[in-house]
Specification:
Distance between the termini: 37 Å
Shape: elongated
Helix content: over 70%
CATH topology of the largest domain: Arc Repressor Mutant, subunit A
Largest sheet: none
CATH architecture of the largest domain: Orthogonal Bundle
Radius of gyration: 22 Å
Number of strands: 0
């Protein structure tokens, strides 16, 4: 994969468009065209917010689908419990699993997604939108 530069990051993050719109607005103010600046600014903010929300939702759907395909039901339940901040003992008590079994499921999740620690599991299930329900809905 080619190395990405600052320009790519600016374009991907929407900051490139922000800089362009800000430049137009600044020029409009210098030309004494305030009517152009305010609606354009409001329109831009709405568009960026909508695009970011759509992007987050698309990423969450994709991660959710991948989790569904790559994890067993039990591994998914354990991953959600890790995301809720439970210890291995608490997960075992909640899901009626022995401590070694919980450790094995956590290890499988780490291995399947090439993660290094429980925090990364928590971030993964959070990004998939699996922590949106009430804490007891595993």
């Amino acid at each position: 994969m080619p190395r990405r530069g600052v320009r790519d990051w600016l374009v991907d993050s929407g900051l490139f468009l922000f800089a362009a719109v800000f430049g137009v607005m600044t020029a409009a103010e210098r030309l004494d065209l305030p009517a152009l600046g305010v609606p354009l600014w409001a329109f831009y903010l709405d568009q960026v917010a909508d695009a970011q929300q759509r992007t987050r939702e698309a990423i969450a759907r994709e991660i959710h689908d991948v989790l569904g395909r790559r994890l067993s039901d039990r591994e998914r339940e354990v991953a959600i419990a890790v995301g809720q901040g439970m210890s291995n003992a608490e997960i075992g008590a909640r899901l009626y699993l022995s401590l070694p079994t919980v450790k094995a499921h956590v290890s499988h999740v780490l291995t399947k997604f090439q993660l290094n620690n429980r925090v990364q599991i928590a971030l993964l299930v959070h990004d998939a939108g699996l922590l949106d329900g009430p804490p007891d809905s595993i």
